[in-house]
């Protein structure tokens, strides 16, 4: 089992390159399944989740080659349309193979992903949307068994679901006729997916808004796409810089990529200055605690909630953090309290009392963003913090310890 050992209290200096976005990469890899040809992706982060999805595609007969953040996927010779529980259970986004397989081959058998640490996370909206396009869907022994020729239709989501929106877009690209997705999620990663699909010959308009229209085409062509920057990784390093009173510069990212957290950064006393080198983080003498409520894009992202909780811990005042997307996303709170934070949970709200002096402790990572919050708390803590179960972190942060070491942090990975 690997752990990170962090000796806190060091000021950080220099620049960190931001990787390609995990949440954009995963649906883009699934888009390759639509093609009787090759999809080439650049700026692909080397992450556990990327390797898991490559393994799922390989198990179906896809040929993949991945090095130096350059990924080539050839799905010309798909032999089966089956995704096993053993592979799917480790990563919920695997359900995104369902739409492409069904639309290209008329059938698919994909394991249900099951629950995960941050909540029950059902896929009912994905299935309902595919049924609107005429899919026949059965659930048997934990597997989604889907078949049928897809025909464009109106789709209405009960809530803006990121994965559900991506799955139906992927399916609709090769469906007969026009699909209109209502109450679609508007995340930038969906826009990146549509940009790539358009380069493959898909006919899509409205991505980035709540109504997306897809006119099905009979086939797509080989293409090349560069994955967008990871706005959540970048946001995590902004908070790391601010709480350690540093001025990190983040490269490969633009200020506009921070739009959903910008107003909360400003309220907290953090400013971002963009120049030709990247985006540099500045802060007021004192940070101020902020109230946040997680929302679908363009609202405040749930994937930045844990990191802002850490910010509130060290800032002046009291901040309230409300989680509205996932029902169980406060597991970092107990661990932060073990590091001397003063946070109390009341239902979906956490009250964070500021001016805490974090003290190093052994803490356990429980999910991806919770892990990141523990690492950044460790950077500012007095003494040594040991973060256990960092496999969660490796699912979503490329070379995090190397990036932090390069700006002067004391972060070491050990295997026990
Ligand atoms: C994606 C992101 C994840 C982020 C989340 C919310 C990826 C790979 N993951 O996850 O990092 O935290 O968006 O921004 O992009 N829901 C249903 N039924 C469904 C689908 C969703 O009830 O069929 C609910 C979920 O339980 C949740 C809400 O809808 O309460 C939003 O979930 P969704 O946007 O689908 O999240 P993911 O796509 O799983």
In short:
The chain is α/β, with parallel strands linked by helices and 416 residues long.
Descriptive overview:
It is a single chain. The protein is α/β, with parallel strands linked by helices and about 425 residues long. The chain folds into 2 domains: about 200 residues, Alpha-beta prism (UDP-n-acetylglucosamine1-carboxyvinyl-transferase, Chain); about 200 residues, Enolpyruvate transferase domain (UDP-n-acetylglucosamine1-carboxyvinyl-transferase, Chain), CATH 3.65.10. The chain is built from 14 helices and 24 strands. The strands form 6 sheets. It has a 4-stranded mixed sheet with strand order 22-23-1-24, with helices on one face. The mean pLDDT is about 95. It binds uridine-diphosphate-N-acetylglucosamine. The site of uridine-diphosphate-N-acetylglucosamine has 23 residues, from α1, α5 and α6. Uridine-diphosphate-N-acetylglucosamine binds next to α1, α5 and α6.
């Amino acid at each position: 089992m690997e752990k990170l050992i962090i000796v806190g209290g060091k000021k950080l200096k220099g620049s960190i390159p931001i990787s390609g976005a995990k949440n954009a990469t995963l649906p883009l890899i699934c888009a390759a399944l639509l093609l009787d040809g090759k999809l080439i992706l650049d700026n692909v982060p080397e992450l556990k989740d990327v390797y898991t999805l490559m393994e799922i595609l390989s198990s179906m007969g896809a040929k993949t080659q991945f090095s130096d953040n350059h990924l080539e996927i050839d799905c010309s010779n798909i032999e089966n349309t089956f995704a096993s529980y053993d592979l799917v259970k480790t990563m919920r986004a695997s359900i995104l193979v369902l739409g492409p397989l069904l639309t290209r081959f008329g059938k698919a058998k994909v394991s249900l992903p099951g629950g995960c640490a941050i909540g029950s996370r059902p896929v009912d909206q994905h299935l309902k949307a595919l049924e609107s396009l005429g899919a026949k869907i059965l659930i048997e022994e934990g597997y989604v068994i889907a078949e049928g020729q897809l025909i464009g239709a109106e789709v209405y989501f009960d809530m803006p679901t990121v994965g559900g929106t991506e799955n139906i877009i992927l399916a609709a690209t090769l469906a007969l006729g026009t699909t209109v997705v209502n109450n679609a999620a508007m995340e930038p990663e969906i826009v990146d997916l549509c940009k790539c699909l358009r380069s493959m010959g898909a006919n899509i308009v409205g991505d980035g808004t709540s109504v997306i229209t897809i006119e099905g085409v009979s086939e797509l062509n080989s293409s090349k796409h560069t994955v967008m920057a990871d706005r959540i990784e970048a946001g995590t390093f902004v908070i790391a810089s601010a709480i350690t009173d540093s001025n990190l510069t983040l490269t490969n990212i633009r200020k506009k990529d921070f739009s959903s957290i910008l107003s909360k950064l400003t309220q907290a006393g953090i400013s971002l200055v963009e120049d030709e080198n990247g985006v540099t983080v500045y802060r007021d003498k004192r940070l101020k605690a902020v109230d946040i409520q997680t929302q679908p894009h363009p609202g405040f992202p749930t994937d930045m909630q844990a990191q802002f909780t850490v910010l509130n811990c060290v800032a002046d005042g009291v901040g309230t953090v409300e989680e509205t997307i996932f029902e169980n996303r406060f597991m970092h709170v107990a661990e932060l309290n073990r590091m001397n934070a003063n946070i109390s949970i009341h239902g979906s709200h956490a009250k964070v009392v500021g001016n805490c002096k974090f003290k190093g402790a052994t803490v356990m990572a429980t999910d991806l963003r919770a892990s990141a919050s523990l690492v950044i708390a460790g950077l500012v803590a007095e003494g040594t913090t040991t973060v256990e179960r960092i496999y969660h972190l490796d699912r979503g942060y490329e070379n995090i310890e190397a990036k932090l070491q390069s700006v002067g942090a004391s972060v070491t990975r050990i295997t026990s």
